[in-house]
Structure formats: C-alpha cells, structure tokens
Amino acid sequence: xxxxxxxxxxxxxxxxxxxxxxxxxxxxxxxxxxxxxxxxxxxxxxxxxxxxxxxxxxxxxxxxxxxxxxxxxxxxxxxxxxxxxxxxxxxxxxxxxxxxxxxxxxxxxxxxxxxxxxxxxxxxxxxxxxxxxxxxxxxxxxxxxxxxxxxxxxxxxxxxxxxxxxxxxxxxxxxxxxxxxxxxxxxxxxxxxxxxxxxxxxxxxxxxxxxxxxxxxxxxxxxxxxxxxxxxxxxxxxxxxxxxxxxx
Length: 248
Prior knowledge:
About 25% of the residues lie in helices and about 25% in strands. It has helices at about 30-45, 65-70, 75-90, 120-125, 130-140, 230-240; strands at about 10, 15-20, 50-55, 60-65, 105-110, 145-150, 155-160, 175, 180-185, 185-190, 195, 200-205, 225-230. The strands form three sheets. Strands 5-13-6-7-10-9-12 form a seven-stranded mixed β-sheet. The relative contact order is 0.15.
C-alpha cells in the first residue's frame, strides 16, 4: 500500500522539486529501485517545461523551466509537486515485480598494478590486508550502480565489503580518467581527469564517458558492475582498441 513507505516532497532551489524516500538507511537497494521506478514513470509522463529528471540513491528530482510550467491556476512548484505525488500514488509506493528486474551486468577490467593504484598499499595497511586480498575482495562484487553524478558518467557503486570501508582523503588530488576508488561504503570510477578525494586502488582502460557515443555514458543507474584484474599489457591493449561496446 502507498502508506507502507514514507516520502517527502520539497523544493530544490527555485527550479527543481525532489521526492525523497530515504529513511535513514543510507545506501539501500530497495529504496534505490523505488526511486528508479519513479524516474521511469516520470519520464513517460513529462510535459513541456520539464528540463531534466534525475534519480539519486533514494530520491528523484524534477528540474523545470518556471516560465513554461507555470499556469494561471498553478504555480510551477505546485504543478511539479502534483506530478510527483501522482507518480508516487500510481506506483502505489512500491515497485511492481516487472520493474525489479536487475539491470545489465557489465564486466570492467581494472589494472591494480602500482602505476595505476597510488593508494592500494595505503588501503592494505589501513585494513590489515595484503594488496592481493584487497584486490580479491574488491573484485568479488558485483556492485549496483546507485546513481550517476559529480562528473558526466561518474558511477556511485555499492556496497563495498565492510573490510574495505575507508574515509575519503582529507584533501583532493588529481585522479586520472578510469581511476577506480573507494570512499566509505562506495566504490566508483572516475570517467575523466579530475580532482578527487577517493582512495584510488586501480584504473580501468575502458572509456565510461564519450560525447561521441549514444548514449555518451556507459553505466546507467540499476546496472551491476563486476570488476576483474588485468595486467599492464592487457590494459594498454584494451585502451588502444577504443572498444567500449563489448563491455556494455
């Protein structure tokens, strides 16, 4: 029933409205599945003036153009709020069995050798594990793609094995595109060269963002990612091939 799960609707700045179903659980797969189902419903019911619909861990946000959405009878906020309320009611607060199907399983090669893993030895020391054990645990997955954000194609994956849960760096450093990191309960891949604070334990040669592709982002919310180790030679062979499709 709709009352089985709590939710709230609130403005996100002056041109977006968020429906949040978080209940203090943090990273929760069922809440993420519900948020994704609401996102899909909203995509099929969007109307002129809706600029974007973004799904996060346990929420969905609708961004809009106020001048287009506003009517004589409703403010832009009240109209979007009504749409989100309808989305929740028509989904009955739960996810139909047809929506719960798992997303794609994507196997991503990662080179964990020292040149690509500046923080691997530190992670091993902090966790009391060997580098090999860290790699084996990290590759045990698969991990759910909970959301895409921060950078185009940046994937928030979870949850990591509790033995690998570590805090972010105190200060950001430069991370190379493809850098695979750990932060708290999450792991993820940097699609572009960028400042970052995650503990980098490897790098994938696969391009996860390419504006020339359709869609330009390889990983999508709801997908599952399985990492597997490769050596330096294989890393360069895959990167030189420029092939992404066989991993997606």
